[in-house]
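Dear colleagues,

As part of the handover before I leave the project, I'm documenting each prediction I ran so the next person doesn't have to rerun anything. This entry is a single chain, and its sequence is reproduced below.
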Amino acid sequence: MSSLYVILTGMLVAGGCSIVGCFLVLRKMAMIGDAISHAVLPGIVIAFLISGSRDSVWMMFGAAVLGLLTVYLIQLFQQSGLQSDAAIGVVFTTLFAIGVLLVSVFASNVHLDMDHVLYGEIAYVPWNTLEIAGIDVGPRAVWITGAMFLINLLVVWGFFKQFKITSFDPALAASLGIPVVFFHYLLMSLVSLTTVASFESVGAILVVGMLVVPPLTAYLLTEKLSRMIVYSVGFGAISSVAGFYTASMLDASIAACMLCVSGVLLLVAFLFSPTHGVVWQKWLQQRGMVGEDSK
């Protein structure tokens, strides 16, 4: 049963990340997830200092607030003329440094496992359970990541047309009366919450891979957004299952193996995709040349 919970958590994390990750890839904002995952550290520390508790609700609230602040600051710097990559680098390194400073200054008060927050360990998921009215209802991470997956699914399904138009053509969206800024921050809010929800399972750094790799793999295989989201969630699920059994055989990090499998799937798509595959395109070119020579 414990292995089932680990695989399920991996699938839920990958699925939730994949849904919002598709829009990040389309908007060329893939590294925003990396920025948020580092910048939320001061929010986690401040939430603990204020509440005096390591309860996940407080941690998620503090991290979510810092995640939104990160997005706002990046947007502000971009509007001021700073390049996108430079704005992301300045904001997330500064906020992350502030978080590390807070941990250093209040080291005696902040009982925060940096390795757990940044790297995570999905193998411990089955033992961190949630109790409701004194009843053990299963691993906390399954409930949190499952809720986040459902929220992402419902929000994207409910506003699919708006997210699609604002991602491909913001000017057209504005002319149609769609509030572009609102949906931008709504998407960034989902990214922030998804990143934070994954802390207890795969960690802040590893979740970045799940935000980018499965969506990018799907992007190489289809030109249709709805199909891209379905493919991305599917690749995330495959990576979780295959990664778990790979880690069992190698006695290695489960989350790392999940991302490695996801990377292998991306490599296969990059080489053999019918539309973007390097090997496939070479083969078509050679076939075309042979056809011309035979004429």
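The beta strands are 129-132, 135-139. The chain has a mean pLDDT of 83.

All the best with the project,
I.
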